[in-house]
Specification:
Layout (H helix, E strand, L loop, with lengths): L23 E9 L6 E7 H24 L1 H16 L1 H9 L4 H46 L2 H9 L3 H16 L1 H48 L3 H42 L5 H13 L3 H17 L1 H30 L4 H44 L1
Antiparallel strand pairs: 1-2
Helix pairs in contact: 2-7, 3-4, 4-6, 8-9, 8-11, 8-12, 9-10, 10-11
Length: 388
């Protein structure tokens, strides 16, 4: 009689199945069991892990592609929201005079439509004609500039005669070449297409701004209803201060731009510089962008004035050498300190970063965004840190 072979005793928790290769991933967790600190082994199917990872990557790519598709619409909405915030001080002023919000919005946008119509009917054709005149007169003006005695002396002292002469010849040949003019005509066709797109964008932004401005209180109330009552009471004053800072910034910056444009217009008119409307528009738009925009506009205006009339160019150089420090270090800091309470260094950093990220539009909204972030830090982050 044969005796049964004794069975081997397996350790507690071990599997009786033979250890065969599987397609399962093993993850070692550090969580300990209540009895003795043994580590658990969790088996995950490799197919499931790969499928979930691939699905997550596909969803991320789809979100990125969708955002790129609607980025233009998001830009329109953001610009319209910014304009609606900028119009809040004017609305408060009109409502303080007893005008209800609906009629006040209609009055403001009626005035805006009249201004846009005046610009399209009168300013843009004049600017276009002056731009064409400047292009046609540029070769002769450049030649006259290089023949001035003071210009010859300066280039001769620095040994730049040949270089300047070559550049002038290249520029005049380029402007007088018929093939270049043909390519310029093609560029004008593309420019016309861009103008049509710009007009459509302006109309869309204008309509969105009207709707947002008219319904802003209800939109804000609905947004704060999504928060708990305690949080809504904490965030409402912060949001009100942020929107007020944006409105004050826009009013202050437009005032600075108007002052800059008026001074440039008077100087150009005194020295009979051609293209006054074009150069004044450049000065106004450039001054809307703090610090950087004024410098870029100054370079363009000085170059045009210097080519067409050297005394006018020298006068514009003297003007900007005196006005630019006055605006940068006296006028702008005082206006911005009252409007948005943002340090001057932060204004410069915000403008440079906004321009790098979003071009001209990014530079325009950079300071209000920086002001809003500053208000958020002062009213929320700093207060919470003090309460700890």
């Amino acid at each position: 009689m044969t005796r049964p072979s004794p069975q081997k005793t397996l350790p507690r928790g071990a599997s009786r199945r033979a250890s065969t290769p599987t397609t399962r991933l093993v993850r070692r967790t550090e969580a300990s069991t209540p009895r003795g600190g043994a580590r658990r082994l969790v088996a995950l199917p490799a197919f499931r892990v790969g499928f979930v990872g691939t699905l997550g990557a596909a969803v991320a790519l789809a979100l990125v592609a969708g955002f790129q598709t609607v980025s233009l619409v998001a830009t329109y909405v953001g610009v319209a929201y910014f304009f609606s915030l900028a119009l809040e001080p004017v609305l408060r002023l009109l409502r303080g005079r007893g005008i209800r919000r609906g009629p006040a919005v209609a009055l403001i946008f009626g005035f805006v439509v009249l201004v846009i119509a005046a610009v399209v009917l009168f300013v843009l054709p004049l600017v276009g004609r002056q731009l064409l005149t400047l292009v046609q007169q540029a070769p002769a003006a450049i030649t006259r500039l290089t023949e001035q005695p003071w210009f010859v002396d300066v280039t001769g002292q620095f040994g730049l005669d040949a270089s300047v002469e070559g550049l002038v010849q290249l520029a005049t040949d380029y402007l007088r070449d018929p093939t270049r003019l043909a390519s310029l005509g093609g560029g004008l066709v593309a420019l016309g297409s861009g103008v049509v797109d710009a007009v459509v964008a302006i109309i869309v932004v204008l309509v969105l701004t009207i709707y947002l401005t008219a319904t802003m209180p209800r939109v804000v109330d609905k947004a704060f209803q999504l928060l708990p009552a305690s949080k809504a009471g904490q965030w409402r004053p912060v949001y009100a201060e942020m929107t007020e800072s944006v409105g004050r910034f826009v009013v202050g910056q437009v005032a600075l731009s108007v002052m800059n444009a008026i001074l440039v217009f008077v100087l150009l008119l005194i020295f009979h510089v051609p293209g006054i409307a074009l150069l004044t528009a450049i000065a106004f738009v450039g001054a809307l962008i703090p610090i950087v925009g004024t410098v870029v506009a100054a370079v363009i205006i000085i170059a045009v004035a210097l080519i067409t009339s050297p005394p006018a160019g020298i006068a514009m150089i003297i003007f900007y050498l005196g006005y630019q420090p006055l605006e940068s270090y006296v006028i702008t800091p005082r206006v911005m300190a009252r409007a948005v309470r943002v340090p001057g260094a932060l204004v410069l950093i915000a403008v440079l970063a906004g321009g790098a990220l979003g071009g001209v539009l990014g530079a325009l909204v950079a300071v209000p965004v920086a002001a809003s972030v500053t208000v958020l830090i002062d009213r929320i982050v700093v207060v919470r840190q003090r309460q700890r």
